Amino acid sequence: MKLGLLALALLAVAGCFSAADAIGETAAVASTSTLSRGPDLTLHALPTADPKALGDVVAVAEAADDYVAFGDHGAVLVRAGAVVQSQGDVRAWRGAAAIPALDGEGTWLVGLSADGRLLRLLESGRFENVGRRLPIASGEHVRGVAVTSDAAFALALDGAVLLVNVAKQTSVRLDVPSLDGVAATESRIAGLRGDELVVVDVASRKATSRAVPGARGAAFDAAGRLLVLTPHALLREDGTSGGTLSRIVERDDVELRALGAGGGRVWFVAGAEPWNLDGESLRRGSVATFDAASSMLVSRSGDVWRAGPALARHRVELSAEEANWNARVLPVAARACGECHGAGRAGLALSSYSAWNANREPIKERVLRARTMPPLLRTLSTEDTRALESFLGP
Question: Is residue 340 pLDDT above 90, yes or no?
Fold first, then answer.
């Protein structure tokens, strides 16, 4: 599939609405909820090329072994550990992403320049302004970019959000207030405007807003729940459709910063330590630290990057038991238990390794011994039982 330079512009779908009419206030922040402490996650350091004279790294776009690092001295393209191209014409950046290629072939690693252009560093050494392939007006600034699926992404523009679906060769423009950055799923878009959190429902094309004093970042977890970070609290929606925000983490002793999500994981930094929100538990990332001069970036794959004066890349190193849980138990749990015990559901949440590890004996008793769970309409096959026994024991 090939998309011409103007294809997406010509296929743009009318999707505008009046921001003044659509934005309404939603519920305030609720009281604190508590999370359990899970086992630490080991972050294994991966090799990175030494991009000489790149300066402080601001953003990274990554796809497998390829990545582009964007710093205050320019950008470098790295493939299989080697720098294959560098460019110093643009030296101020505000973000990056690995978006589905507009020509339908693979992934494009793009950076968001400080002056609002979406730029792709080519192997020839020049930057391509990707925004010229999209229905973006001349002089209009791109303020944020977020990937929503393997075939779609969202752009925050001046007074609008542009939803691009490469597979369907369509784009939808929604008129909303100008957002600083953007987080997105296929059904909802979120961004900040100062201390105001704005959330757009894609299906209804309606936006709601609420005041969140000190808000400095927004992200969606794997269950589609919205999270917002402030200097001393992490807030999370109750449910996945605009529920009340509850404080699930409060730290008065250190500053919270750098919220990010990818690979089914949510990360934030408390002081100098990276922390992972795993369902209803918190897990500290060991080894990696983030001092005041560095920042944390989370790629869509789930890799954790340390940006700043020194670039580093880390990947979660799972124990054999947790790797087995992800591969064999999680699919069974999602199918047989998810309706009642999935993330964001009422009752005991059993959507993570930490939750299963903490409730190993009660689960084993009810599911494998007494067989009172799951309910009759969700019986376990012999293969399902073996998968659970591989974690719980016979």
Answer: no
Radius of gyration of the chain (CA): 22
Mean per-residue pLDDT over the chain, rounded = 86
The one-character DSSP state at 39 is P
CA distances from 256 to 45, 225, 250, 269, 274 (A): 23, 19, 9, 6, 10
- Among positive and negative, which fits the CA dihedral 7, 145, 228, 18? negative
> In the chain, what are the domains?
7-317 (2.130.10.10), 321-392 (no CATH)
Write down the pTM of the prediction.
0.79
Residue 18's contacts (CB-CB under 8 Å, 6 or more residues apart) are 175
Q: Is the dihedral of CA 203, 205, 211, 216 positive or negative?
A: positive
| Cα gap 217→183, rounded to integer Å | 9
Q: Which of 280, 281, 185, 299 is nearest to 242 (CA)?
A: 185
Could you give phi then psi for residue 287, rounded to 5 degrees? Answer: 80, -60
